[in-house]
Amino acid sequence: xxxxxxxxxxxxxxxxxxxxxxxxxxxxxxxxxxxxxxxxxxxxxxxxxxxxxxxxxxxxxxxxxxxxxxxxxxxxxxxxxxxxxxxxxxxxxxxxxxxxxxxxxxxxxxxxxxxxxxxxxxxxxxxxxxxxxxxxxxxxxxxxxxxxxxxxxxxxxxxxxxxxxxxxxxxxxxxxxxxxxxxxxxxxxxxxxxxxxxxxxxxxxxxxxxxxxxxxxxxxxxxxxxxxxxxxxxxxxxxxxxxxxxxxxxxxxxxxxxxxxxxxxxxxxxxxxxxxxxxxxxxxxxxxxxxxxxxxxxxxxxxxxxxxxxxxxxxxxxxxxxxxxxxxxxxxxxxxxxxxxxxxxxxxxxxxxxxxxxxxxxxxxxxxx
Length: 369
Prior knowledge:
Mean pLDDT: 88
Order of helices and strands: EHHHHHHHHHHHHEEEHHEHHEEH
Number of strands: 7
Distance between the termini: 63 Å
Number of helices: 17
Number of domains: 3
């Protein structure tokens, strides 16, 4: 047919910035689980974690960690309540089976895949995986590193995995409770700020940039590590989602050829877009990293030495490994420290430009100059 190409399907932009309320909500609930492990998260995260009773925290961890890949949206949704309603009306077996199929594609199970998702992984033998609790835990150990499997939590999750309707009821009831008691009011507060961020980045044509350049420009952070090279090559589309709660960190979720990357809501560098709430939120993230004596001592020590290994920082400042790791993660994520591998260890250098940019941002916000 000579006219067969007259009507063509428009191509999706490889990198876009979008609101994605369902992904934002699910990620915010995941951050509540991580509240004691990461410093510098949004105030809502720590406040919500502290407001929960021990029983509520245990149930929240079971639902979010035990069934995360049954909960994670596989596509965009206009609102979180609309997505929860979709989960409530889905086939419960499909929710469970989708979660197990995602597990089977994880890198540890497919060691020969170079560490990336194996989209052609064999289907899960449900009868074998679910025949008893030990078989289920063995399946998880095959999919993930053994030290990443919380056996007590996953044993509890197994009692629901073998009963998909009960698993669906638990998920839906918990998500609705979290929305009604914690998320709905917070979403009303932060949505205008997030829309401002999306609009500000929407004024730039990201298609004129390479993928890495576009992602780094929007998030304000470098994509370091070989796994990002693999992701940039494998994924067809990046959806960048501003978050009010992730602080200086990033969150990423993948479904097929699409990757959602959550970053701290911000304005583009040099933007003339007027959004005082957004500017204030970014300043709070930067200053919270400096509002701790140990983190300031770390920055001072690295500045004086030029570069320090993590072990030297621990020894010199008398910090435990967990405390040093938590502080270094926040300082690196905020951009004050540049991290690299040296002789098998992690070494850190101060980024003076980041310090100067922070002071300039505070000055501009308070003094208008």
